[in-house]
Amino acid sequence: KSRDIVNVDITLSKNGFIADSSKMYVLEAAGIEAKRLVNTTYEALWKAIRIIKPGVTLGDIGYTIQTHAESAGYSVVKEYCGHGIGREMHEALR
Predict the structure, then answer these.
(1) Residue 31 lies in a domain
(2) Bigger pLDDT: 85 vs 48
(3) What Pfam family is a match, any one (predicted)?
């Protein structure tokens, strides 16, 4: 539909390993709130990426994302916070 948020998820497998990439798009007719949601998630992702270095825990990364989301009036659905990937599509985080 013209007001939807579209997520494109691409998965590849090579030599027994899996790679996965996802990108969200806001269609032109989407409302301001849809655009704001997608922009906030993008900002949270990059805030988290910027803090990654040796010694930073998954908890630190999650806290960064959650703090940014909540500062914009959103919440994090903790049941969908990611997964490991390697020889299986959904592996435990390490």
Answers:
(1) yes
(2) 48
(3) Peptidase_M24
* Closest CA relative to residue 41, chosen from 89, 92, 85, 80: 80
Residue 14 placed within a domain? yes
Task: Examine residue 91 and state whether it is found in any structural domain, yes or no.
Answer: no
User: 25 to each of 16, 74, 89, how far by Cα in Å?
Assistant: 30, 19, 23
For residues 42-71, one letter each, b for 16 or more C-beta atoms within 10 angstroms of the residue's C-beta and e for the rest, the string is eebeeebeeeeeeeeeeeebeebbbebbee
Q: How far apart are CA 27 and CA 3, in angstroms?
A: 6
In which residue are the tokens 């909540």 written?
A: 70
Query: In this structure, is residue 34 part of a structural domain?
Result: yes
Give the CA distances from residue 14 to residues 18, 19, 43, 86, in Å, rounded to whole numbers and listed in that order.
7, 8, 31, 10
Q: What is the pTM of this model?
A: 0.76
